[in-house]
Specification:
By secondary structure, the protein is α+β, with helices and mostly antiparallel strands. 36% of the residues lie in helices and 25% in strands. The strands form 6 sheets. Strands 1, 2, 5, 6, 7, 8, 9, 10 and 11 form a 9-stranded mixed β-sheet that branches. Strands 14, 15, 18, 19, 23 and 24 form a 6-stranded antiparallel β-sheet that branches. The longest helix is centred in the last third of the chain and has 32 residues. It is globular and about 75 Å long. Bound molecules: serine (SER). Serine binds next to strand 10 and strand 11.
């Protein structure tokens, strides 16, 4: 089965089970301060789980573009080194919002894998949550008993909180989960070591393909678990890994998700995949990273010097550097892969077609400018090495090359060693740590839990007709950032304040209480479909309402 059919098959199956098929959310998150990139299929449904919003359909399924390169879920350093992690990947998922729960989620997962995709059940293992005393959570016997209908008991394994209790981040919806793992090793290897001993042990041929999460709780800002009013299903299947299994390959990179890119990289760089560890890693890194960068640009996030844009720039630079060092590429070539990827995935993701030219130009510019940096860095490094007494390069100097000139440390170390020098790595790390502490202090921020005063789904914007109106506060929370200190975010039942967006600055103004107290609205922004008003202090007598006036 080709990858495009595998994807479609999943959507068709869940459509048969009355799921509405929805598009992937953008990979770049603009309206959630706790998240830079979509790192799981459930991100776009967070508010449904929390009960803050009501979905149109209680069952949905999709393929979600995900990026795991920052925050709680970060796979960047593994990518290219192994054969089954990616920065960008697709997650096939089905969801129930307060509708079906464990029994159906487990039965359907089993049905599609073994009856539709026809995976041999004897290569599958499942895990369930063993419980956790410190959290007051019991072993998930319910899931165990549902699995028992399909899976021999010696293939149902217990997993701890780290593997079998899924959390989106420090806060938010969470719950125990059941994972499905495949063992695609040869018979000979299976005779030697049982697959059960290799589950969750980072073995490249015994990998997790699907995670079924039974969402029941909300992790609060203070770390406690709160029971949610309803129970939900959130599943995520690694599309590229599923393709590996169904196409009978030993590596995600040998599936048709990656082979067109790999053939093109080989042709452009005149190298051959499968001939040396270093060349193979470099080709995998480039094939993986060009997907991330192209999809990110297609979703509106260009490489830049700050925030999400900086993460994307660093990923592209990692690819350029691997090409430069291990494939001997001194000229830009990664942008030439854009058309291969567009041909391959443009039908499933039309944004690739739409932004093909932009991606081509942006990647080419980035490549040229970083290749220039690498050239200049080589000259600087040369001068530093000539001025070095003894045979050890100063760690602070290596850090300066990295920090000020963008010259990567591993390249410094490699070139230094070729010339017979070592680098003071501890000194480099110490300088890096100091720098991190400085930026951590500048960026740290904390969001308190929302205090909901009134459930109000429809938050009307009335500012086109009036600049002054009576409002009620429906929810508020306290925020703390290193830059701005403490302040508050308020949401109203209706509002005359226009939120920041589309290049327009947010409205300012004030709230006037019935006793004449004034609270300034410092800014207005839209986040998660809420219009949020920023104040320095929390108004008293919230229940009485306020006159809201736009400046
Ligand atoms: N949220 C779960 C995960 O990302 C399942 O979708 O693994």
């Amino acid at each position: 089965m080709k990858s495009a059919e595998i994807r479609q098959h999943f959507l068709d199956f869940f459509n048969e089970k009355q799921h509405q098929i929805v598009p992937s959310a953008p990979m770049v998150v603009k309206d959630d301060p706790t998240l830079m990139f979509t790192n799981a299929g459930m991100n776009q449904f967070k508010e449904f789980f929390l009960g803050n919003k009501t979905p149109k359909s209680k069952r949905v399924a999709d393929t979600q573009k995900c990026l795991r390169v920052s925050g709680k879920h970060n796979d960047l350093e593994e990518v290219g080194i192994d054969t089954y992690h990616h920065t960008f990947f697709e997650m096939l998922g089905n969801w129930s919002f307060g509708d079906y729960f464990k029994e159906e989620a487990i039965a359907w997962a089993w049905e599609i894998l073994t009856e539709r995709y026809k995976i041999d059940p004897s290569i599958l293992y499942v895990t369930i949550f063993e419980g956790d005393q410190s959290e007051g959570l019991e072993r998930d016997m319910e899931a165990y008993n549902f699995w028992k209908k399909f899976v021999p008991e010696d293939r149902i394994l217990l997993g701890n909180k780290e593997d079998n209790f899924w959390e989106m981040g420090d806060q938010g919806p969470c719950g125990p989960c059941s994972e499905i793992h495949v063992d695609i090793r040869s018979e000979e290897e299976k005779q030697k070591v049982s697959g059960a001993d290799l589950v969750n042990q980072d073995h490249p041929q015994v990998v997790e393909v699907w995670n079924l999460v039974f969402i029941e709780f909300n992790r609060k800002a203070n770390g406690s678990l709160e029971q949610l009013p309803e129970k939900h299903i959130d599943t995520g299947m690694g599309f590229e890994r599923l393709c590996m299994v169904l196409q009978d390959k030993q590596s995600n990179y040998d599936t048709d998700v990656f082979t067109p890119l790999i053939r093109e990289i080989e042709a452009l760089t005149k190298t051959e995949y499968g001939t040396s560890i270093e060349v193979d890693r470099a080709i995998r890194v480039i094939a993986d990273h060009v997907r991330t960068v192209y999809f990110s640009i297609a979703d509106g996030q260009l490489p830049s010097n700050t925030g999400a844009g900086y993460v994307i720039r660093r990923i592209l630079r990692r690819a350029i550097r691997y090409g430069f060092t291990f494939l001997g590429q001194k000229e830009a070539f990664i942008h030439l892969l854009v058309s291969t990827l567009e041909k391959q995935m443009g039908d499933a993701f039309p944004e690739l077609k739409r932004e093909q030219k932009l991606a081509f130009n942006v990647i080419r510019e980035e490549e040229n400018s970083f290749l220039k940096t690498l050239d200049q860095g080589l000259i600087l490094l040369d001068a530093i090495l000539k001025g070095t007494k003894g045979k050890e390069l100063d760690g602070a100097k290596a850090f300066e090359l990295y920090d000020t000139y963008g010259f990567p440390y591993d390249l410094t170390a490699l070139i230094a060693s070729e010339r017979g020098y070592t680098v003071d790595e501890e000194g480099f790390k110490a300088s890096m740590e100091q720098q991190k502490n400085r930026s951590r202090a500048a960026a740290s921020s904390k969001a308190g839990d929302w205090v909901v005063l009134a459930q109000d789904e429809l938050e009307e914007f009335v500012g086109y007709d009036t600049l002054e109106t009576q409002v009620k506060v429906t929810r508020y929370r306290k925020m703390t950032t290193a830059k701005e200190g403490d302040f508050y975010q308020l949401v109203f039942n209706l509002t005359p304040f226009y939120p920041e967006g589309g290049g327009q600055v947010g409205d300012k103004g004030y709230l006037e209480a019935s006793n004449g107290d004034i609270y300034y609205i410092l800014n207005t922004k839209k986040e998660n479909n809420l219009i949020i008003h920023f104040t320095e202090t929390l108004p008293t007598k919230l229940e009485e309402g306020f006159k809201a006036v736009v400046d």
